[in-house]
Amino acid sequence: MRKLMLLLPWVRRGRERVLEEELRSYLEMAAEEARRSGMPAEEAEFAARRDFGSILRAKEDVRSEWISPGLESVVQDLRFAVRSLRRTPLFTGVAVLSLALGIGAASTVFSLVDGVLLKPLSYRDSGQLVYVREVVPELAGVYPTLPANWNHFSYWREHVRTFDGLCALSADQFTLTGAGTPEKIDGVRTSPDLFRVLNTEMARGTGLTSDVDGVVITDSLWQRRFRGAENIIGQRIVLDGRSATVAGVLRADFRFPKGAEFGSLAGLGKHIEIFRQVPNRNVDWDGEFDFIVIGRLKPAVTLKQGMAELSLLSTQMNAAHSIESKPHPVGEPLQDVIGGSVRGSLLVLQGAVLVLLMIVCVNLTNLMIARSNGRVREFSIRRALGADRRRLLRQLLTESFVLSFAGGALGVALSAFTIRFLAQASLDIPRLNEVHLNAAVLLFSLALTAACVCLFGMVPAYRAQAVSARFQKQSPRLREVLVGCEVALSTVLVFLAALFVSSLTHLLNVDKGFHEERAVAMDLSLPGLQYADSAARNRFFERTLSQMRALPGVLSAAMISGLPLAGESQVNGIDVPGSKSDWIDPATGSLMLVNVRFVSEQYFETLGISLVSGRTFRQEDQARKVTVISQRMAAKVWPGQNAIGRKFTTGSGVGEVQVVGVVRDTYNGRLDAQPTLIAYVPYQIRTPGSGSLVVRSAAEPSVVIRQMQKVIWAIDPNLPVSEVRTMAEMVDQALAQRRFQMRLASAFGAGALLLALIGIYGVVAYSVEQRRSELGLRLALGSTGGELMALILRRGVVPIVLGLLIGLCIAVGLGGVVRSLVFGVSTSDPVTMLAVIVILGGSGLLACVVPASRAARMDPAAVLRHE
Amino acid sequence: MLILRTLLLGELHGYGIAQFIRQTSQEALLIEAGSLYPALQRLELQKLITAKWKNSDTGRRARFYTLTAEGRHKVAASMSRWEEFVSAVGLVLHPKETA
Predict the structure, then answer these.
(1) What is the interface pTM, i.e. ipTM, of the complex?
(2) What is the pLDDT of residues A312-334, one digit of tens each?
(3) pTM here?
(4) How distant is the Cα of B75 from the closest Cα of chain A, in angstroms?
(5) Any residues with CB less than 8 A from the CB of A729 and at least 6 apart, and which?
(6) Size of interface A-B (CB pairs under 8 A)
(7) B38 touches chain A (CB under 8 A)
(8) What is the spatial distance between Cα B31 and Cα B34, in angstroms, rounded to a whole number?
(9) Chain B residue with minimal CA distance to A48?
């Protein structure tokens, strides 16, 4: 250990000082002794030195005690490598930075993949958890799967033997009043055995029991609302105006999947903080598919066996309870469901990042070769002075090791930083909060670094050895092949980036059907207790809307039961008189489903949804059975006919309504899906207990928001106002993931392009350098500068063209992988391809022209004199 | 071993050790500084001796070496081994005297 310490330069320097001083003190003592015996001072000193022998030799001998020779030479190699790398700061800088970027990006993305896809959910034995849904054959065209029906769930739970437990939960929101401002909190209603199925324990309390009043809260809610009070268990809190008892607090590390991961139909909120029992209720055996069912398979049971039993049970159940829709259950591992929505894009990202890393390595190989070619003279001299070939090789490898280690360390630091940053960003990536730089990621980075050492260290080492043995200039073919590879790989990434950019552009150009400018939206939900009858709810909305319209600057205000882009809900089939029973969509052969939206008048004006034909709602339409439908619905149900005046029947308490107008399409779900079929009805038909207020105002959004809150609290101080945002923010949110994808892909593409350019420039510049005298001679013999340029350009252009072609072929071949991720553009879109060719070819050519034109301008006399 | 033996008498600096060995061996064993210091260094790294800076009798700063417990143990062991060796060699060289 002490010996190893001596490898550290400062420890070593200290040691040197001690040695120096000690030897001096020896000499002085010897001299003093000699003086005492009568020698003159000067002679005494000389005698002491003479007796001592060689001081240098003695020092060297002492030093050799410090370190064994093998270790010493490694240290020597390391120091030499650092020194020689420091001599070429540009090369070292480019190499270390590009490695750091490559490794940093790779390990960041790997952390994401690891955290989101590979690492099991943070529940014990989470591999046994199954997410069970139901498939209703006649709805399968629109909704491939549906949440489960409560009765079906109960039937399974009662009879199933391959599962350790089954639980069902559904979305709910609770208004927490009492301590502090009223707050709307996302929660779920669940069967009490949820936590047993997930296999998590409470930090406090017993958890849900058969007591219907009991609630379980998360650690975050406990800390935030109750300041972590010790006596929380058994305390009574007020939810939706009724009292409930806290029966358990979850551990701080408990994570519940974000709502969106269960699909928009499940309608779970974003941050679930309250778990409460499902109230007893009577539900139909048919329809009412509302519950998320999670099951835990018995230890040795496979998913297939478990689902086979459930299917069998469903068949029995369908017969026993004469269920007409004949649903059957499907199950998939809960893990797949959670990461599933982003699996595709993450894997593509991972692929892209590996390609980028490959480019980095190829580029480094290229740089190293250029460097080692430039050092032929140095190696030859060292060979001549007696360095053996193994030693030279080892030293070159040490250099690459130092480089990749520095790059790797920087890369890991970079990735630690990016991951921290990503975890804070509000991206819609499930389990993002569980992502962090862990040991696996570190190992992955180290493995990559080691791979880089081998990849770009061995080639130049091998070549340098050959070079120094023969002292001969190499043909630069290898470097051209490398540049070709680089261009090909970059083409793939640039093409990917181009696809994402054009997807986003297409998405931005999608006609959303409404104008988001100057519109502010606010979500409200009226507690069932105080607003039990629709008259009370009506009064509330009427008062609120009229007061909001009176606010200064407000142009219009309206209410709707579900905003565009906020998810599909109130989904119903329709009945058209004259046709038999439910309306079937001829295109898909399945039920036609529409979103019912309860709106106040002025809704279309407020959001700027323009009228296609007929009219919008008027004052006198309140509670009249009229409807305004979306354009696409009109075209589907009455193709080629006038929809105005037609009648249809639908659910959600609407009954039969008559069409009075047709409006532009909007999107309730994703912007990159089809527009939603929507039937708007006056809210007074069946006033909903929750909805959103939308206000279009000439004033600043922040001012409007404050005024809106004031109005609400003046009418009901206990009403929570949770989600307040501008419509522009909603649109932004809907685009966030695409934008993120596009930015990442562009960053990769730009990085790849830059690296390829460095490579091309390097090759051409190097070949110019090597052929200086030849070119000078040609100039002297009468070649024009243009001819010379053409000669040199050929060097660079051939690999660029070949690389581009190969890269495009690969990109088109890989098109299938990204097809699901792009929108509005084909994966072999000729325009995109042309753009890639222009970008890569153009900038590549530029990278060639710079050194070539420098060659063409050189002074032949000077060059030849130099020879 | 000679160094260790010398240090058995108490702490001493490098020059002192060299002088002591020269005097006690009646100038028969001359230890050169060139081999003394590497040896001291080795012993120090083996933790048989420790060193610290001190002022000598003449008021000069010097590095004084002391035996460690391990060092003492080592001296005793190697001295007895040396004596066995010497007596064994003696037996071979003068077989009659003991016979």
Answers:
(1) 0.75
(2) 999 988 888 888 788 889 888 88
(3) 0.63
(4) 21
(5) none
(6) 63
(7) yes
(8) 8
(9) B33
